[in-house]
Design brief:
Strand content: 5-15%
Number of strands: 10
Number of helices: 23
Shape: elongated
Structural class: alpha/beta
Strand order of the largest sheet: 7-6-8-5-9
């Protein structure tokens, strides 16, 4: 028996060792634009070829959100650009050399790969027709054309190496400048609704739309060499995956990147197919990709994930909001504090709240659920408070006169009478949650927001509709379900319409 026991322990130990050799797990992130998706997916594919279990979290929103996710450990690696690192992440503190950037990033526990092999800088673009009609060839020419309609990406408008710095360097007028999502700005430019917008120099749309890049004659825009940023512990924690991903360094040139962007943006290929083509062009590596789900199954999966987010958040909002509403109804001071706090949360833009939550909770469902719960509190608190404070005094006195204890008065008299207002608040909260949950895709939470963001980025109406239509139907279904629920949960006497004598 001892011999058998020893053999079992030995086999168990060997199995554990074997499993340990392939237990690497890597979470790759990418920001909300096609090139970042492709580079992130290519890195994921290389890590998988090394035997690592890999997750790819796309559409992580602005640079600050993605970098916060990296520093917090929610992701392990993501593609970035040296100009963005220097100007946005380090605020100019890292100097201009790669070594100085690495040294500054290391203070935050972040490493940086060698450049991947291409530079994707900012540029300003116009159409060929406007170039000839207006004599618009260089950025300096904008000084004599103050009435041009300019539309820039929101991030570009806020970055020191974007519009503010450009205005300071060139002394540009800014009479008609608006924030427009990047892909929509390109379409507006092509249709004559804008005169100038910002582009990336590897953007596949430049050739398709026949755009002309304005000469940066004062040399304002820095170089944006593509790199991989990673957590400092990744080489030791997942050495095989790390080594595989670093193979991209020095091998991805601008031509290969433009081809990959064109496969995704112009040819309608999937992100996986575009990344596979990039690896084949750059490394001569053909990577097998799994078969994609059918559109119907993808919509069903995204809808189910969306329902889970909304349902869980709503249950938590009810569990917190109803007691807070009861407390608010009993004390004017507490009521003012609770409703004011819940109201302040409502005034915070969804994207800003998500950005604040990412450093605390990472990416994925946790920050999304937290935001949905916070946004869902105010309607429930106010509905409960209103329902309880509008109960006629005679009813409250009668309940007390017959000797009902406070708990029984609350659950058997007051809450049933207040139930129409309580349910109305919950109903409003549920509908708000369905719509707000689409923004959860910006922090890596799955749901119907993912296809909407991808469809906007790729100018693919069918993909936008695959997320927007189910979300709208879900909101209508939730609203209808609560209308039916009120017939069951609200006491009959409160549902009867008064009849004239």
């Amino acid at each position: 028996m001892r011999g058998w026991a020893a053999a079992v322990l030995l086999l168990t130990a060997l199995a554990a060792c074997a499993a340990g050799g392939t237990s690497e797990h890597v979470v790759v992130g990418s920001k909300a634009f096609p090139e970042s998706w492709i580079l992130g997916e290519a890195a994921s594919m290389l890590a998988r070829t090394a035997g690592a279990e890999t997750d790819h979290r796309q559409n992580l929103g602005a640079t600050e959100i993605t970098y916060a996710a990296l520093r917090s450990g929610a992701i392990d690696v993501y593609p970035e650009y040296t100009g963005t690192i220097r100007e946005v992440l380090l605020h100019g503190a890292g100097g201009s050399s790669l070594d100085s950037l690495r040294s500054e990033l290391a203070r935050s526990g972040v490493g940086m790969s060698d450049p991947l092999g291409f530079d994707n800088s900012y540029a300003l673009a116009t159409t060929a027709g406007d170039e000839q009609r207006l004599g618009l060839h260089a950025i300096s020419d904008l000084r004599r054309l103050p009435d041009l309609r300019m539309g820039y990406n929101h991030e570009f408008l806020g970055r020191a190496d974007g519009w503010p710095g450009l205005v300071a360097r060139y002394g540009l007028p800014s009479r008609d400048v608006r924030g427009v999502q990047h892909e929509m700005a390109l379409e507006a430019l092509a249709h004559g609704e804008l005169d100038v917008t910002d582009v990336y120099t590897t953007d596949a749309q430049i050739d398709r739309l026949g755009l002309r890049l304005l000469d940066d004659d004062l040399g304002f825009f820095p170089r944006y060499e593509a790199v991989l940023l990673f957590r400092a512990d990744l080489p030791a924690r997942a050495p095989h995956a790390y080594a595989a991903m670093m193979r991209m360094a020095g091998h991805v040139d601008a031509t290969a990147m433009r081809r990959a962007n064109a496969r995704l943006v112009l040819d309608g290929r999937s992100v996986q197919e575009a990344a596979r083509g990039l690896l084949a062009d750059s490394l001569g590596r053909d990577v097998l990709i799994p078969a994609a789900d059918s559109p119907a199954r993808e919509i069903a999966r995204n809808t189910w994930k969306h329902v889970q987010l909304v349902l869980f958040a709503l249950l938590v909002s009810i569990a917190l909001g109803v007691p807070l509403g009861v407390a608010a109804a009993r004390s004017r001071v507490l009521g003012a504090i609770v409703t004011s706090a819940a109201g302040v949360v409502q005034t915070v833009p969804s994207l800003a709240l998500l950005a604040l939550l990412v450093p605390l909770l990472g990416i994925g469902a946790k920050p999304a659920l937290t935001a949905l719960v916070l946004y869902g509190l105010l309607p429930i608190v106010r509905g409960t408070q209103t329902g309880l404070t509008t109960i006629p005094a005679s009813i409250a006195e009668s309940a007390e006169a017959i000797g009902l204890p406070p708990r029984a008065r609350l659950f058997r008299v007051f809450l049933p009478i207040a139930s129409p207002h309580v349910l109305a608040g919950i109903r409003t909260s549920a509908v708000i949650a369905v719509g707000t949950a689409t923004l959860a895709a910006l922090v890596g939470a799955e749901g119907l927001g993912g296809p909407i963001l991808q469809g906007i980025a790729l100018r693919d109406p069918s993909r936008v509709l695959s997320g927007a239509v189910p979300a709208a139907v879900l909101a209508l279904a939730v609203d209808g379900a609560f209308a039916l629920a009120s017939r069951v949960l609200v006491p009959v006497g409160l549902r009867l319409s008064p009849t004239p004598n």
